[in-house]
Amino acid sequence: MKLFFSYMGFLYVYIINVTSLFLSITPAINGHKLIYVRQAFLLPLFCFIVFGYAHAQSAQKWADVGLTAPKPLQIGDTIPKELWHAPLQDINHPEGKETVKLSDYKGKLIILDFWSTWCVPCIKNFPKLHALQNEFGDKIKVLAVTQEDTDKINKFFKTGAGKEHTYVHSVINDNILSTYFPHKAVPHIAWINADGKVLNTTQAEDITIANIQAILDNKKTQMAAKVDIDRDRPLFLSEHFSEDLQLKNYSIFVKGYYPGLPSGGNFKKTKDGAIYSRQMTNLPMMDIYFPILYDLFKRNGERFNLKRTIIKVKKPGLLTLVPKPDNTFENYNLYNYELIVPEEKADSLFYFMLEDLNRYSEYTGNIEKRITDCFVLIRTSTNDKIKSKGGKPKFRYSTTHSKLINRPIGSILNLINSDTLTKLPIIDETGYTGNVDMEILGAKDLASLKKELNKYDLDLILAKRSLNMFVLKDK
């Protein structure tokens, strides 16, 4: 059935396209919480990558049936006839219909909400959109759209979080709307006014009572257009940059949030696996510094973590995400940065990046040797209670139960350095070189952590050491 709808949709659009063509011929930190906050960035980045792949698959389906994908619509374009009447497979229709057409909603403000089952922000948006639909009634139509297939969507609405949102009327198995409104990240919102004109493409946050009412009253809104950027290209580089040109060096550093990019990172590698390009988008400064410092510390045989920082700036809160009351984050302290160097200079990439940030940002950061208070992990006996019994390496982490099997002792060090039980860095002076098996239960504070380590004849002692530290200052 799904293939039937897909093929008929393609065939219908194809016939209308050909007919239209014939007729025309006749006459788109603060502190150590950063480690946990950073995880919040992984999901948007994951959504961006996966959806980019899904969109490529959608374009391929047009080719599979011998058709050319239609030209994407831009802001200001009018919805073409073939799109108005294209059959769209849907689910949860208020009247039980299996297909709809955009023309069913002509004369209304149509809000297309592109989503996916794995997109948490998309799902969190459903109640708000449902409330707005009820608020404005027949004046608007909020229509969810997903490229995911019938089986996935049916399962979603029957289990887990999805069963709480069976009121969501959605186009499914979509290959048509996503072609006319291409995007690389969800949620993605397309606005079509009562006259059939594409008003804007935005983030979900712009769907508000004020903006909807302004559109219905033919007034201006404050919505910023969301135009997704292809991250495989250098940031903001013109699409007319010829493939015949060889890009040898490129750098851009921009302060401000760009809605057409995810929050995360990207990179390019040589054939030998060396990174010669690093890209960070919509991130606060400490998240931009982090991968740079991770690489530079690694060259000294060390693992960077936030406890190896000395922050001497007037407003340290601006270095990390600034939360808002609605559990989202402010945009004013985010940056977009990319550096591409010649492949033969890949080994110097991260040194150059730190120099760039020192040159162009509001801060100066350097790695310096400092006598620092720290905790030292030591062995308290010659009894080997941590030697691994072998087997497949495993690593499990939680605040109540962490377990390592056949992993280096450095893994447990990384684990306890990432927690908030102490602000001091923790270094390894056990001298242990083999892999270990360890289990740590319920370490709620430093004392309970030490108690767990004592089971393995390990301990943490307070000491002073000369350590490499990242020192960050205002300019």
Automatic annotation (TrEMBL):
Coiled coil: none annotated. The keyword Transmembrane helix applies. It holds the Pfam family Redoxin. Residues 80-221 form the Thioredoxin domain. The chain crosses the membrane at residues 7-29, 35-54. Keywords: Membrane, Transmembrane, Transmembrane helix. The keyword Transmembrane applies. PANTHER family: PROTEIN DIPZ, THIOL:DISULFIDE INTERCHANGE PROTEIN DSBE. This is TlpA family protein disulfide reductase.
